[in-house]
Each structure stands twice: as C-alpha cells, then as structure tokens.
C-alpha cells in the first residue's frame, strides 16, 4: 500500500465535460512535476467556480484510484488519479513556508 504524501496543488485545468480538475505542483523542484487528475463528480453539487479557477491553490481529500510512477529516466510526467470527497480553496497560503516545512519533514523521515 502506498503511503500518502501531502501536497498542496494548483489548478491548471478544469473540464466541465468530464468533471475533472487537473492539479500540479513542482516540489521539490528537482523531482519535477506531478499531475493529479481529480474526479469531482461526487461533489459537483457543492463545487463552486472559485474551487476550479485556473491558478487557484486547493486542498483535496479523497481516494487514490490510480498511480503511475514512472521508472527513473522516464520523460513522462508521473500521474495520480483521485476520487475527491472534499475539495476546498487553500486560503492564506504561504507557499515558501509550506515548501520549507515539507523539506524539514522529508529530512526527518530519512
């Protein structure tokens, strides 16, 4: 079983046709991009336009439905698919402080 890794993600695209939000955040920078394809069908009735605006930072709680971890040296972007149960805007986000805390947490685990 994969251990969840906390990430704060940025909306890069929203498809009303598929009810899918695509999120990205390149952190740590040397690890490259990771894309999260978030299915929001279960929460459409409560989903507002602010939560799907391109450039919006959001939090997501849900179930991983697919993980594509590419082998080292692969040129494709790793992807995960998530069935969202809750999605909300990350207000008052201090991205620098968040990334610093993630580095400290990663060092503590090793």
TrEMBL record:
It holds the Pfam family Ten1. This is Uncharacterized protein. It comes from the Eukaryota. GO terms for molecular function: single-stranded telomeric DNA binding. It comes from Xylaria hypoxylon. GO terms for cellular component: CST complex. InterPro entries: NA-bd_OB-fold, Ten1_fungal. One of its GO terms (biological process) is telomere capping.
């Amino acid at each position: 079983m994969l251990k969840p890794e906390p990430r704060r993600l940025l909306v890069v695209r929203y498809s009303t046709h598929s009810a899918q939000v695509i999120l990205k955040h390149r952190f740590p920078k040397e690890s490259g991009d990771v894309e999260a394809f978030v299915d929001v069908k279960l929460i459409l009735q409560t989903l507002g336009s602010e939560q799907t605006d391109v450039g919006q930072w959001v939090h997501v709680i849900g179930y991983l439905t697919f993980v594509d971890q590419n082998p080292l040296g692969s040129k494709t972007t790793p992807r995960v698919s998530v069935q969202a149960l809750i999605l909300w805007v990350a207000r008052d986000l201090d991205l620098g402080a968040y990334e610093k805390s993630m580095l400290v947490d990663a060092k503590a685990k090793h």
